[in-house]
Design brief:
Helix content is about 35%, strand content about 25%. By secondary structure, it is α/β, with parallel strands linked by helices. The chain has 3 domains: about 1-95 and about 195-215, D-Maltodextrin-Binding Protein, domain 2, CATH 3.40.190.10; about 100-180, Periplasmic binding protein-like II (D-Maltodextrin-Binding Protein, domain 2), CATH 3.40.190.10; about 230-300, Double Stranded RNA Binding Domain, CATH 3.30.160.40. The longest helix has 17 residues, at about 215-235.
């Protein structure tokens, strides 16, 4: 088939799009990449958390899909809103990259060895909350820009350290600059972190069959559990909620965190069950977090 693939124009988004393009071309298809500027790209200096907009990095791409100007789209799954527009569906979730967060610091200091008052840059409320819960003596400040831009700001001394998704750092070839990987017990990842989503128009069976071989069933099951937990908690990608699931044989194990913005109160939970019903496991996790008081934290 000859297909047009929609994507953002950021360095990481283009890497992801080309990765999908290569996989499909290996199967004999012709793929053209079309770059689409999103609302998130236009808000280059604003805080993502303060924008109040959902689907910042996908809205215009999904509109292009619905209009038919592109045949498929590739997103970072954690950017994809929980409620997809009618007429669209996720056709494939490829094998996940490293889902952890990574610390990159000036001077090569690990997180717990950073001096008090160190400025740590991150674009995520989820990371901010959990970092402050581990160390209240640091200063967590917003940072925008692609991975290369953030690393330049770090080298220029605007920050003492950065915390970013390890997956993006790996994909762009900067893994050698990572100082420390933060385990899920330290910083629980965002729902869908490290995973990609290939989105198509619902009912387009020919395109669905074309991209279907890209799907990794274990990754897809895990992120379904994570997104179900997020949905039950009423959150999105810019709220201080974390959920991370892994497949262990025929079971799903999931951990989750809800924290207040300053990390003063943090609630953790876990759940496990058969992987053939991932949404139920995610909801079970969310219900326990709500029982522990997550609703009050999220409301505040």
């Amino acid at each position: 088939m000859k297909l047009i693939l929609g994507t953002r124009g950021s360095q990481l988004a283009l890497w992801q799009a080309h990765w999908i393009k290569i996989r499909l071309e290996e199967s004999g298809h012709q793929i053209e990449i079309k770059v689409i500027k999103t609302s998130g790209d236009k808000l280059s200096t604003a805080s993502l958390a303060q924008s109040g907009m959902k689907g910042l990095f996908v809205k215009e791409i999904e509109e292009a899909l619905l209009e038919g100007s592109v045949d498929l789209a590739v997103h970072s799954l954690k950017d994809l809103p929980l409620d997809q527009p009618e007429g669209l569906s996720i056709a494939a979730v490829p094998s996940r990259e490293d889902a952890r967060d990574a610390l990159i610091s000036r001077g090569g200091r690990n997180f717990m060895n950073l001096p008090p008052g160190s400025r740590i840059g991150t674009s995520s409320l989820r990371r901010r909350s959990q970092l402050l819960s581990l160390r209240a003596d640091i200063d967590v400040v917003p940072v925008r820009g692609n991975v290369d831009t953030r690393l330049r700001k770090l080298r220029a001394g605007e920050y003492d350290a950065l915390v970013m998704a390890a997956a993006g750092v790996h994909r762009l070839g900067f893994e050698g600059q990572i100082t420390e990987y933060l385990s899920p017990s330290q910083i629980c990842p965002a729902a869908g972190q490290g995973a990609l989503a290939v989105e198509i128009r619902a009912g387009n069976d020919e395109v669905a069959r074309t991209v279907g071989p890209l799907n990794d069933e274990n990754t897809h099951q895990a992120v379904r559990a994570e997104r179900a937990a997020l949905r039950r908690l009423g959150g999105g990608c810019q709220t201080p909620i974390a959920a991370y699931a892994t497949i262990e044989g025929e079971c799903i194990a999931i951990v989750g965190v809800v924290a207040d913005l300053n990390g003063a109160r943090i609630i953790r939970s876990s759940a496990r069950g058969e992987k053939n019903n991932p949404e139920a496991i995610g909801i079970q996790l969310a219900e326990d977090l709500l029982h522990q008081g997550a609703k009050t934290i999220l409301h505040d």
